[in-house]
Amino acid sequence: MMKTDSTTDSKQQQIEIGLRRTLARARWHILAKVFYEGLEAAAPYDGSVRLFNGFPLITLAAIEKESDQSNGNESNVWYKVKCQGSDEVNLEIRLPAGKIPFAEILVSRDSTGAICIWPSEKILGHWCLQNKPLFNGKIVLELGSGLTGLSGLIVASTCNPAQLFLTDGNPDCIDNLNLILARNRSRFISKDIPIEARQLTWGQHEDYQNLIGSIDVILISDCLYLENCHINLEQTIWSLLKVNGKCYIIAPSRNQSFEKFANLTGKRFIVQHEENYDPIIWSMHTTYLDERDRYQYSPDRHYPLLMILTKPRY
């Protein structure tokens, strides 16, 4: 008996649902490893969505450890940021070394930015370093800065922005960002650049009321996987940007979440998206593709695309 189209569609839907559940379980595995064993345990493991080690464009070298005064355990680690092929970046960032309390993971709507630096953040930082004129003299805001605001810090240290905002919805991230800013102030291209870390939840206008229509450039990395947040993110970008302002987003397709956000923003933004946006990253990508079994490389999850949103004048 021949299978009907409806039967085939049903089976395809079941496959897609199964894939989404597998990826969700893998992400929770990473969070659980952090909960039980600390941040270093979030390294790639067999079957994880993080098995691929990422693009080695920005690396971190531990330089100082902090201890928890209450128990003497290692609590945070300061790292030196190293950028491939560039001596311009002289930054130090701070990441937790210990376990993340499970309650924090459950209570926060999205705690993934508060446990580690994800690959797209490093790629966005590299891309900013290669495109410094885009930020010269501009008011720049990073959405979803996470614990380190890595891309924003690179802009502050090499691109001479007029002003910089690092934002995240998680207050623990803001506390950590303020410590990083205090430590790196002398390392920025100008000590006079106004830089602020502030809590900003997408869609909550009271968090950014005084910034509406004032931002030249917005930076975002890997913030599209939560599709239920797309509408609030789009509204926030639209509210913040000046007319002709631009938003640069680096994120993998990840089950079409990138494409879905592009379709949503296309209703009122001018949208461009590029696959080959940097020769170094593209060269690495093609190498990984040629040996994908060796690297456990899946472009859908691992290769970030570039989306550029421009706010038009109506």
UniProtKB/TrEMBL annotation:
Pfam families: Methyltransf_16. Keywords: Cytoplasm, Methyltransferase, Nucleus, Transferase. It is an enzyme of class 2 (transferase). Its main location: cytoplasm. GO terms for molecular function: calmodulin-lysine N-methyltransferase activity. The keyword Nucleus applies. It is found in: Cytoplasm; Nucleus. SUPFAM superfamilies: S-adenosyl-L-methionine-dependent methyltransferases. GO terms for cellular component: cytoplasm; nucleus. Gene3D superfamilies: Vaccinia Virus protein VP39. Its EC number is 2.1.1.60. This is Calmodulin-lysine N-methyltransferase. It comes from Tetranychus urticae (Two-spotted spider mite).
